[in-house]
Amino acid sequence: MDGIVTASLSSEININESHSDSSDHWYPNEMDFESDSDDCSASDGSDYDPDDDHQKGRGANSTLNRQQQGPRQKKDKRKSLGEFVWAIVSMNHLLQLFKWCPECGSKNTIVGSCVMGLCVKIQYRCSNRKTPHSGTWTSSPVSHKRYLINILFTSTLNLCGIGYTAIQAVMAAMKMPFLHKSRFISITKTWFNPVVYNFFIPIRDAAISQLKTRDTKILSGDGQFDSPGHCAKFCVYTIMDHTTGLIIDFFIAQKGLNFEELERAGCRELLKKIIAKGVSQLKFVTDRHSGIRAMIRDDISFSTVTHYFDIWHLAKSIGKILKELTKLKRNESLIPWKQSIINHFWFSCRNSAGDPQTLIQTFHSFLLHISNSHKWTTGTFSKMRGENLFPNFSQVVKCAHGKLQKIQLRRGAWIDRKSETFSELFDKMTNKQLSEDIMHCSEFLHTGSIENYHNVRLKYLPKRIAFSRETTAIRSMIAIIETNRNIPTTASSLQEPKMYVRYSKASAKWILRKESKKKDYTYRGEILSKIEAHFFNGTFEFADMTEYVPKNTPKNIATIPKPSKEEMVKKYEARKRFE
C-alpha cells in the first residue's frame, strides 16, 4: 500500500518495550534514533566581530580558549514532537511498525487495513503462542463512530479559506486519502458552521454596544460583489465603525430576493437593522454611489443619518476628468497643473471645517489661481457661469498661500482665461453634479479601512469561485472575526510601525510603505477547541442563521422555469444539423 497518511501523535504504538530474549521480538537500536546533523541542525548564522571580544571581556585569549574547548557546537534547530498534535507519515513506514505487536512485541500479522477519510484503520493479529490476541489501531481519536481528524481537518481548511477542490488536488497528487465532497460539505454544515456563527454573534454585539456609548457615531459602508463581472449573484454590504475600525455587521443582498440594485438594497437593509438596534444620529460615509445618496436623502427612515462621500473616490473622479482633458494636444498647458489640482482638492476637504460651502468655494478657487489671480471679488465668474450655481465666491475671496515672489509670477505656467483650455476645464469642474458631490466631502472621511477589510474577505471568498449563501455568510463572519481581533488596542500595538521604501508600478515612483504586523490567529484555536469538545461529548451546536440565510432563499437566480432535458436535447440536435 503506497501513499502518505496523517496520524495523530497521541496514537501511540508501544514498540519500545521488550518482553523476552526470543529472536521473534524486535528491539529498538540507538542508531534508529540518530539523525544526520547536516540535515537536522544549522549554525546560528551570526557574524563574528573582533571588537565584540574586547567589549565582552574576552580579549586576545578568546581564540586560544576556543581551541582548548574544541570545535564550536552547532545550534540545534530541531523541534520536539511535544510541540505538535498531528504528523504526516509514509504508509510503508507505518506498516513496518505493525510487523511487531504494539502490546507484547511479538511478530504480528496485519489482518486488514482501510482508510476512513483521512483516518487509517489497521487490524492486526499477534502470533504470541502463550496469549494470542488481536487489536485495531486508528491514526485518529474515535468517538461515537466518528474520527476527529476528519472533523478538525475540514474545519481548519474552512478557517484558512481553503476550498475542497484545491485540497483535493493536493491530496490526489500526494496519493493521500481524503474525504468525499459530500462528506466534506456535511461536516462543514454540521460541525463547523454553527460553532463559527455562535462565536461571531458576541463579537458583533460587542461592537454595536461600544458604538452606542459614543456621542459621535461615524460609520463607513461599502459593498463587495461575488463576481468580477456583471453577473453577480450576491452583494455583501458591510458597515464599519470609522473611529475604531471594528466591523459592525453585514448584509447579503441576493439577485432574485432583492429586486433593486444590489448594493443599494444591501445598504438599505443593513442601515435599517443597525438603526433598529438603537444606533441613531450618525454620520455615514460611502463611495460615490448616486443611488445610496438619493435613498438616504428621500427615505424618512434615515432622517437621523447624515451622508458623506469618500474623498478618495472623488479625487479619483477629478483625476479621470483631468486625464481626459490632457489627452488633447490643445490642452498641453494643463499637464503641469494636473497633480496640483488633485492635491488642492485634498487640501480643500481637510480645511473646510465641516462646512460644504467653504469646501466647494476653496476648491473652485484653483480656477483663479491657475490664471494668476490670487485675490478676487464675490462676483467673479458671474458671466461665465451664467445661470449655474457654481462657482459662487461668497466666503472665499483669496488664495490660502502667501504673497508670491516675482520670479514665481514670471515663471508660472499660467493659463489664459480666454483660452479654450480654460473654458473646457471651467465647464468640467463647475458641473453641478460634481460640485454637489464634492460638498458631500466636507468631513474629510474616507473608506480606506473597509477596502482593506475587503482584501481580507477575498482570502476567504475569492471571486473566481461560486459559493452558496450559507458559505458566503460563514466565511464573511470569519473575515470579520479576523479583522476585529487584530484592531490595535494596547499601547505597544498602537506604536508607529516601521517604514520601508518600495517602487510603485502604478505611479512609477518610489513610495514609503508601512511594514505589516504579524496577525493574531488565536481565534482559530478557540474555534477548533470548541469543535473538539463537542466531538468528545457527542454533542452538536445549534445555530438559527435565518438572520443571514433566509429560509425562502431560491435555489438559483433563474427568472424563467427550467425546461426538460429531452426538450433541450432536441433543440441541440436541431441546431447541430445546420452546422
The strand order across the widest sheet is: 10-9-8-11-12
Helical proportion, percent range: 40-55%
Low-confidence stretches: 14-60
Q: Kindly report how far apart the N and C termini lie.
A: 51 Å
What is the tally of helical segments? 21
What's the β-strand tally? 14
- The overall pLDDT, averaged over residues, is 85
Shape: elongated
Question: What is the rounded Rg?
Answer: 34 Å
The biggest beta sheet reads:
5 strands, mixed
Give the helix/strand class: alpha+beta
Sheet-strand content, in percent, reads 5-15%
Would you give an account of this structure?
This protein has 579 residues and is of the alpha+beta class. It has helices at 37-40, 51-55, 62-69, 91-97, 148-159, 164-174, 181-212, 262-276, 290-298, 311-326, 338-350, 356-364, 366-369, 382-385, 406-411, 420-429, 432-439, 448-460, 469-485, 522-537, 565-577; strands at residues 4-8, 86-90, 108-116, 119-126, 134-138, 142-143, 146-147, 217-225, 234-241, 247-254, 282-286, 305-309, 499-504, 509-514. The strands form five sheets. It has a five-stranded mixed β-sheet with strand order 10-9-8-11-12, with helices on both faces. Strands 3-4-5 form a three-stranded antiparallel β-sheet, with no helix packed on it. Strands 1-2 form a two-stranded antiparallel sheet. It is elongated. The two termini are 51 Å apart. Mean pLDDT is 85; it is low at 14-60.
